[in-house]
Amino acid sequence: METLSFEFPAGQPPRGRTLVGCVGSGDLEVMIEPGQAGKLTIKVQTSVNGAEQRWQHLFARMFDGQTPSAMAIDIHDFGATPGVVRLRLEQGFEEIGHD
Amino acid sequence: MSSYSLRGLHWFNALSAGAKPVDGLPASLKVADGVVGEQPVRFIAVVADPDNRFVRARNGEVGLLEGWGLAKAVDEIIAADADKSHKRAVIAIVDVPSQAYGRREEALGIHQALAAAADSYARARLAGHAVIGLLVGKAMSGAFLAHGYQANRLIALRDPGVMVHAMGKASAARVTLRSVEELEALAASVPPMAYDIDSYASLGLLWETLSVEQIEQPTSADLARVTECLSLAIGDVATSGRDLSGRLGASNRAASSKVRQLLREQW
Amino acid sequence: MTDLLNKHSFVELGARQRAKALLDTGTLRELLDPFQRVMSPWLARQGVVPQADDGVVIAKGSIGGLPVVIAAIEGAFQGGSLGEVGGAKIAGALELAADDNRNGIPTRAVLLLETGGVRLQEANLGLAAIADIHAAIVDLRQYQPVVGVVAGSVGCFGGMSIAAGLCSYLLVTQEARLGLNGPQVIEQEAGLEEYDSRDRPFIWSLTGGEQRFASGLADRFVADDVAQIRQQVSELLQQGLPEQQRSRQADLFLQRLARLDAEPQIDAATVRDLYQGERS
């Protein structure tokens, strides 16, 4: 298991918070809460070691060319594929957006 | 050399010397009405019955007959003392290697039989009977849940053969996808995973841990010591509540208290 | 939300969604929600990723207008196994529900059981928590019903199958399995001849929901449908305490077992024959 931290430039914090997913095999739990203005922080606890670069790339691609809101994201990952990670994050962003 | 433990039987015989045996129960149950000091008590032990009709329960395992039989033995006491102000104590002598693992057991609902035993012990406790668990050997998993774990007070003898656990090492290794060696290494650093009684004591679940001279066959000094401890435990129950809150408070079980406190605040 | 209401399968819902699906609309209030991050103190140090709610959802609300606390186990997280925190959440909630009743508030409980039993990484603390859960069910059950639901797909095993046996009422579906010992463990302990853990039809025939209902070890057999399960749970809660608690029938079951020829290996039909008869 590894714990990783990431940070990206961001806009204003969202109002709501949400949780999607579950720490089941091949899945992950994503918790999104309002963070500090200007900063998007992501903390990942993952069962897969040595994947820091992959997480970095995945997040960088997702936030490329946009200013995400200032979220504090907590991820508990149980070996999800990048596709599932992306799906869960988008699901979470959508729920936050609807608040 | 027998293939099963005789500790439970020996301690039952020693403690219940002069007590009145209770019949009408499966042969794998030893039940007698006697005294501890001045206090009237019912002693209950699950012992090996090599002729058990259920072949997977011949080595002292808690199976179908044992679960329902324990329920009956405890229910009798609850009913007999229902109108009395002073309720007899129940002493569960615990030396149970496991629940019974078998096709007949699962098919016939061993979970329901064990539920019946836990139910009766819990109701005895709620009705005001002191229920004391005396651990003289193994206290494993479902067997312990059915016979002993509903006690107000747990007393363990300090010996390598006295152990509480959720699963035997081989099976636990298989289920958690570890080797037995890895499991043992983890157990050494994670108290709830350990198999020894001192690690278990660090969880705060025991009321007392006692050393004896001869765990297999108690000496008269051992008997005196355990009898005194049982007396104190019965007295202690009388001065405090009927629930299991006495098991909370150890630093190795801090989260159990914290969760309850937070739930209460948010209730 | 609209998405959730359109689904009919209960089994495929997660623990939180299940709780929401059973409670009267708008009444759910979760206690110790995941954002409070009360997680297992034991998993991370063994290299196992924790879950924010430790796999147990405690939700208060009402069902058919009656005050209820639901404890829902998330079967997808560590096989629904109970560790210290998840176990204490269930035990603590049941203890508070019993206190409510002593204070004149008739809180009932519903347990959504998808669990392999003790979480072996927290072994003795899981076992202790399950003993606390047993104690709390027996206490609460004096006042108000405790309804157990085994919907599937994990099933209900280990010490929590004993908890299921203590419930006032037990509701199962076709997808449910209920047994003390998991098939793998029985095979490990007793051998392939006794119990072949890979023979799924055999295992379902003995421990599946339909068989448990047909042999009187469960009270309701319901289709995997949210509306039907909610309806049945609501009925059971309205019904109040059962006339006869299943786990208090020692004489009856000892008589039945005495009638059984325990020599030959057993099959599902034998169990039904032996246990049937009392169902109205």
From TrEMBL, chain A:
Molecular function in Gene Ontology: acyl carrier activity
Superkingdom of origin organism: Bacteria
Modified residues (O-(phosphoribosyl dephospho-coenzyme A)serine): S25
Key words of the record: Cytoplasm, Phosphoprotein
Location in or out of the cell: Cytoplasm
Modification comment: Covalently binds the prosthetic group of malonate decarboxylase.
Listed InterPro entries: Mal_deCO2ase/Cit_lyase_ACP, Malonate_deCO2ase_dsu
A Pfam short name: ACP
Main location: cytoplasm
GO CC terms, sorted: cytoplasm
Function comment: Subunit of malonate decarboxylase, it is an acyl carrier protein to which acetyl and malonyl thioester residues are bound via a 2'-(5''-phosphoribosyl)-3'-dephospho-CoA prosthetic group and turn over during the catalytic mechanism.
Family, per entry: Belongs to the MdcC family.
Protein name: Malonate decarboxylase acyl carrier protein
Species assigned in the record: Pseudomonas fluorescens
Gene (UniProt): mdcC
UniProtKB/TrEMBL annotation, chain C:
GO molecular function, one term: carboxy-lyase activity
PROSITE patterns in alphabetical order: COA_CT_NTER (PS50980)
EC class: transferase
Domain of life: Bacteria
The entry's keywords: Transferase
Name listed for the protein in its UniProt record: Malonyl-S-ACP:biotin-protein carboxyltransferase MADC
InterPro entries referenced in this protein's UniProt entry, alphabetically: AcCoA_carboxyl_beta, ClpP/crotonase-like_dom_sf, COA_CT_N, Malonate_beta
E.C. number: 2.1.3.10
Record gene name: madC
Keyword Heme: no
GO BP term, pick one: carbohydrate metabolic process
